[in-house]
Amino acid sequence: MVKLYGNLDMHNLVTINEAIKFTLLLSCLINILFLGMGSLFVARRGGLSYILHKLSFLTSERARLTAMYDNPFYQDKTSHFRALPKSESGIIFLGDSLTDLCEWAELLKNDLIKNRGICGDTTEGVLNRIDNIIEHQPKKLFILIGINDLNQGIQVLDIVENYHLILRKVKESLPNTQVFIQSVLPVNYQKFQRNDVNDKVVELNVRLRELTKEFSYQYIDLFSAFLDINKELNSQYTIDGVHLNGQGYLLWKKIIEKDVSGEI
């Protein structure tokens, strides 16, 4: 028998070639599988725009330092929400501390209401947990988010991009859900010790109104009702200039109760 490559004969060489071919084929199949899984993940997370947005977010030092959803309180809260039983007839209030700090079911006398507000939350945080909201299949969804983004220096266009991704996922997954986008509230400069927020709030609310038209959702103007003669958050509704007292929530109730109690 002819000897090749020292101790390797023709039969061994053929066996080695077949092993190499099999390894290459297996490698290609694994790569195709991972590519398919990756494509499915990207699609479920909101498409390429979401992934690009996340990459941009992760490379921002400021964003990493201010990511509220990395702290234990936020993780405990989201874990609690995931553990709660699911129902398909609820009304979900989604947002930050302005939502979190109110007993909505009692205030509006409606046991169908579920509070999914988290103190300190941002549009980025809501985007990260919107899948859990979708799993509950709410009949109505009331959203108020954005003031913490502005306070952290997030640009209005970046906030709107987050909002767009949130609403697109809701639209695709919950086509029959009634969605209400509530305007971001103003702040009171004397109490809040900042005088550069309300102009950005106005700009953001203009953009949010445009988004509601794009997605055929309903826009609720809370901003105007809470203004004083100085075009700031009326001091009778707040102690710290940002959050609401009892009178503030009674006014909020008055504005939205028809939408909440209306036919589902």
Structural summary, described in words:
With 264 residues, the protein is an alpha/beta fold. The protein folds into two domains: 3-43; 45-261, SGNH hydrolase (Rossmann fold, 3-Layer(aba) Sandwich). Helix content is 55%, strand content 10%. A hairpin with a 3-residue loop joins strand 1 (3-4) and strand 2 (8-9). Helix 7 packs parallel to helix 9 and helix 9 runs parallel beside helix 11. It is elongated and about 95 Å long. Mean pLDDT is 84; it is low at 1-5.
Please give the order of strands in the largest beta sheet.
4-3-5-6-7
Rg (CA only): 26 Å
CATH architecture classification of the largest domain:
3-Layer(aba) Sandwich
The CATH class of the largest domain turns out to be: Alpha Beta
Strand runs, count: 7
CATH topology of the largest domain: Rossmann fold
Count of folded domains = 2
The N- to C-terminal Cα distance equals: 85 Å
Coarse morphology = elongated
Specify the structural class: alpha/beta
